[in-house]
């Protein structure tokens, strides 16, 4: 999968209550406020910093992927 798809799937898991924004934030170091802006479309995933995208993708693949399948 692509980074973008991993991030979209992570945000879908968040919306479906499989994970909280707090937990994502604490595990990745990305602020809850910034995560919310990406999830809500206030900021574009396409313009996300590579470091942030990699952290979110890694979190998704380690902690969420198996839960959402």
**What is the 3D shape?**
globular
Topology pattern, helix = H, strand = E: HHHH
Distinct helical segment count: 4
Main sheet: strands, sense, barrel: none
Beta-strand residue fraction: under 5%
> How many discrete structural domains?
1
Please give the alpha-carbon distance between the first and last residues: 14 Å
Mean pLDDT rating: 93
Instruction: Using the CA coordinates, give the radius of gyration.
Output: 11 Å
Helix content: 55-70%
Strand tally? 0
Which key phrases capture this entry?
single chain; 69 residues; mainly alpha; 4 helices; 0% strand; globular; HTH cro/C1-type domain-containing protein
Quick recap:
With 69 residues, the protein is an all-alpha fold. Helices cover 70% and strands 0% of the residues.
Question: How would you sum up this structure, described in words?
Answer:
It comes from Jeotgalicoccus meleagridis. This is HTH cro/C1-type domain-containing protein. The mean pLDDT is 93. This protein is 70% helix and 0% strand. Helix 1 packs across helix 4 (50-68). The protein is mostly helical. The chain has one domain. It has 4 helices and no strands.
